[in-house]
Design a protein that fits this description.
- It is built from seven helices and no strands.
- It is mainly alpha-helical and 114 residues long.
- The radius of gyration is 14 Å and the shape is globular.
- Helix 4 packs across helix 6.
- The longest helix has 17 residues.
- It is 69% helix and 0% strand.
Length: 114
C-alpha cells in the first residue's frame, strides 16, 4: 500500500471520532491511574507504553481495543507486529505492560469517561 493511501486511511480513522481512540487505547490520565491503582515509576512506564502503542500501531492501522486483544493475538499476531514495527526489547516491554494493565480496566474507563 502506498504511503499516501496509508496516510489517507489514518486520517479517515481519526475522523471516526477521537473518543473511539480513547476506547481503544485509553490515555494514562488520572482516571486510568485511579482504576489501575498504580503510582510513581509505573505511571511513567504506562505513559511511555501508551505512546508507543498509539504511534507505532497507527503507522499501519488503528490501535486495536486493548481489552479485545486475545491470548491468541499474543501468541500469533503481536510478536509479528512488534518485529514489523522494529521495536526494541525495552519498547516491547513497555507496550506489553501498558496493554496488560489497560485491558482489564478499559470497560470501566469507557463507562466513566464523559
Amino acid at each position: 500500500m502506498s504511503k499516501r493511501i496509508s496516510l489517507m486511511l489514518f486520517g479517515l480513522s481519526l475522523l471516526t471520532g477521537c473518543a473511539s481512540l480513547e476506547d481503544r487505547a485509553p490515555p494514562v490520565d488520572n482516571l486510568f491511574i485511579a482504576e489501575a491503582k498504580v503510582s510513581g515509576e509505573e505511571i511513567n512506564r504506562l505513559r511511555e507504553g501508551h505512546k508507543i502503542y498509539t504511534s507505532f500501531c497507527a503507522d499501519c492501522h488503528a490501535p486495536r481495543q486493548v481489552d479485545k486483544i486475545t491470548a491468541r493475538d499474543w501468541k500469533e499476531h503481536i510478536p509479528k507486529m512488534f518485529k514489523k514495527a522494529e521495536l526494541y526489547p525495552e519498547e516491547i516491554e513497555l507496550v506489553t505492560y501498558y496493554i496488560k494493565t489497560a485491558a482489564p480496566i478499559n470497560q470501566q474507563l469507557i463507562a466513566k469517561r464523559p
